[in-house]
Design goal:
- Helix content is 42%, strand content 17%.
- It has 331 residues and is an alpha/beta fold.
- The chain is built from 12 helices and 12 strands.
- It has a single domain (2-329), classed as Rossmann fold, CATH 3.40.50.
- The chain is globular and about 60 Å long.
- The structure holds NADPH dihydro-nicotinamide-adenine-dinucleotide phosphate.
- NADPH dihydro-nicotinamide-adenine-dinucleotide phosphate (NDP) is lined by residues 7, 9-13, 32, 36, 56, 78-82, 96, 121, 123, 165, 190, 192-193, 208, 210.
Length: 331
């Protein structure tokens, strides 16, 4: 089987690609430039091919790439701006995410009717607003959609990201409902994703938004304040597995798969690093190690856990693996 992965350079996408290849799938990835594609070919080998699709938010953007690969029967749409900073929220975040998703689904149903399964990488942010995520009275589940609007999204970049994922996922379900395409849609809705890069070469310098949350705790100096960030965590290798489940299993058809393991805070991450890397204790701050209370929405994802059916990687293992990799890659 041949699987198309949009946004192949991404943190999550590369773990998905590595897992697909290890399970003997062939992968076609879309990238924004040939240089990025050549680099991925070096990292992932001969079962990986790429197509250059420079702009997401253009009608028919994927037509050519799909026509070049009539062997593809599964499409994983992971490409989306994953950032909380932009100069122009509409142009850089909302439009590529929302219109990009609509157009890619249109391309698939027009140019690649042999594709039977499509997975959209959505997010917890399509379920809950920033305030709701840290509100213990809020119940997040596969049945809930965030009330955030396009106008909210225009107001600041954090809201833009939350609105972009919510409205892109809604647009995907709407597309399926109104056009009844040949393919079946599923979504994977990860919470905050941490854990190692698929390849050590990618663990140098600045990492993607969420992997950098862990990295930035590791980089704290003795007198630095410990950041106040907290939320729900899942390991990137479990998110990769979830993408495979989303197109392999019948129970995953037309489902939103909400993947969550346990809560995190910057202090808890720091405690884990201090415990497991004694050699770093002198250079890191201590913070307030006893302060491990985390205000978090109730996340009811029983339905998803049943579909997934695998044991998830705990926060401690995820942090240790990521930090070991960063140390190795920068040695
Ligand atoms: P990355 O930033 O590592 O990956 C984003 C990918 O999307 C890259 O391949 C990037 O290409 C591509 N991309 C971004 N903007 C555009 C654009 N305007 N046009 C074309 N391609 C674009 O982030 P992640 O791997 O973390 O995110 C992957 C997906 O997972 C996203 O859809 C994100 O919303 C979702 N997600 C992530 C979570 C997390 O905690 N990390 C949690 C929940 C959902 P390039 O390399 O060329 O910039």
């Amino acid at each position: 089987t041949s699987v198309f992965v949009s946004g192949a350079t991404g943190y999550i996408a590369q773990q998905v690609i590595a897992l697909l290849i290890s399970k003997n799938y062939n992968v076609v990835g879309s990238v924004r430039s040939a240089a990025k594609g050549d680099n991925l070919k070096k990292l992932h080998g001969s079962k990986f091919q790429y197509e250059v699709v420079p702009v997401l938010e253009k009608q028919g953007a994927f037509d050519e790439a799909l026509k070049n690969h009539p062997e593809v029967t599964v499409f994983l749409h992971t490409a989306s701006p994953a950032t909380f900073t932009a100069e122009d929220n509409e142009k850089e975040i909302l439009i590529p995410a929302i219109n990009g998703t609509k157009y890619v689904l249109e391309s698939i149903s027009k140019s690649a009717p042999q594709i039977k399964r499509v997975v959209y990488t959505s997010s917890l942010v399509a379920i809950a607003t920033p305030e709701q995520i840290n509100d213990p009275t809020f119940e997040a589940s596969e049945d809930v959609f965030s009330p955030i609007t396009y106008d909210d999204g225009k107001s600041n970049s954090l809201s833009a990201y939350f609105a972009s994922k919510t409205l892109a996922e809604k647009a995907a379900w709407e597309f399926v409902k109104t056009t009844k395409p040949e393919f079946v849609l599923s979504t994977v809705n990860p919470v905050y994703v941490f854990g190692p890069q698929a390849k050590d070469e990618e663990a140098k310098g600045g990492l993607n938004l969420t992997a950098e949350i862990v990295n930035s705790v590791y980089k704290l100096k003795k007198d630095d304040e410990v950041p106040q960030l907290s939320g729900p965590f899942v390991d990137v290798r479990d998110i990769a597995k979830a993408h495979l489940v989303a197109f392999e299993k019948d129970e995953a058809k037309e489902q939103r798969i909400l993947v969550y393991t346990e809560p995190f805070s910057s202090q808890v991450i720091l405690n884990i690093i201090r415990k497991n890397f004694p050699e770093l204790r002198n250079t890191l701050p201590v913070g307030n190690p006893e302060n491990v209370d985390i205000a978090l929405a109730k996340i009811d994802n029983e339905k998803s856990r049943k579909i997934l059916g695998f044991e998830q990687i705990p926060l401690e293992d995820s942090i240790v693996d990521a930090i070991k990799q960063v140390i190795r890659a920068n040695a």
